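re: ur question from earlier - yeah i can do the single chain one, its not a big deal. heres the input i used so u can compare w yours
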Amino acid sequence: MRQLLTGARVFTGETILEGHGVLVEGGRILGLPPEGSGPAEAVEAVRLDSSCLLAPGFIDVQVNGGGGVLFNAEPSAEAALVIAAAHRRFGTTGLLPTVITDEPACMRAAARGVVEAVRRRDGGVLGIHIEGPFINPERAGVHDRRFIRAPAEEDLAFLCDLAAELSGRVLLTLAPECVDDAVLARLVGAGVIVSIGHSAASAERVAEALDLGVRGFTHLFNAMPPIANRQPGPAGAALADHRAWAGLIADGHHVHPALLRAALAARPRARMMLVTDAMPLTGTDRTEFTLNGRTIFRRDGRLTLADGTLAGADLDMAAAVRNARDLLGLPLEDALRMASLHPAEFLGIERERGRVAPGCRADLVLLGPGLEVLATWVEGRRQDAVSAPAP
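and the output i got, formated as tokens:
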């Protein structure tokens, strides 16, 4: 039966509407009729509180884990679906499970798991993010240097085949100074979304990579050298060249809010998106986990090794949206777009996701007055959020 979600304000991805409902059938949005103009067909009316906001479901392109599961440790379809379910409580209706630098067998198992998980249309798994291993060891961060390497022919063939199987929803983070032009051109030509990260590339090398079709910057400023007056590096290049999208970890720890505000002032907001870089503790009350034999501690909103090295983020997307509004001073509409429409555009799926519009999937999030998540819909199926309040 058709459902009419009514009573709440609606953020379409472009603007906030008052006095409109969202008509849903078969997992799709049919229209946004004015309230009181009910369609002639039989409709189940679902009344939402007028203090709430119905918005496009969040999309996160960098999720290492959630619900107690680390994707590197359990690279399977079941794990990917558990991670997606954990993040759904925080408004994320679509994500890329992320496998970081590891043994080749881990990357391949993760890819097989995602291919299987994507077949679950209401599972929330959109594709895969492979972060490494073709990165700069000097900018490894928490990545295990033992597994950092240059791409071999079998790696490239595997990634190109995977992009075809997943309709291009394969995001690969690499350091462009560690691969040659032919590698970049081959990956981009095969439909792999290539992003610059864990890199110390010169601004000139970044420009060459962007000319070849590299499409993003992974967690801008993190795992990159600081901007210097004669060596702007990847971060400085990102501020000056606006062709690619940039992911921001807006947790108040990874990057100083003043620097994030500077990036937002320098770059078009339409090329900025929020990412969580979340680890398995999201959605749990656990205080530590293990990554490649090393213990990661959860302390004061940070995840770190014993020496203080950041190891992912203690962040969910709803909190990132609140931080974008409150720490970075963004209008609510921009904060919401950075969590939905912009990542959808980055992935090339904006015709189906990231907007509340006729023809789009009914992937939605209901936000309370404090931007706390009250419920989500994936393909029109509602899941109420429990134990996911605003801080």
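The two ends are 37 Å apart (CA to CA). not sure if urs matches, ping me
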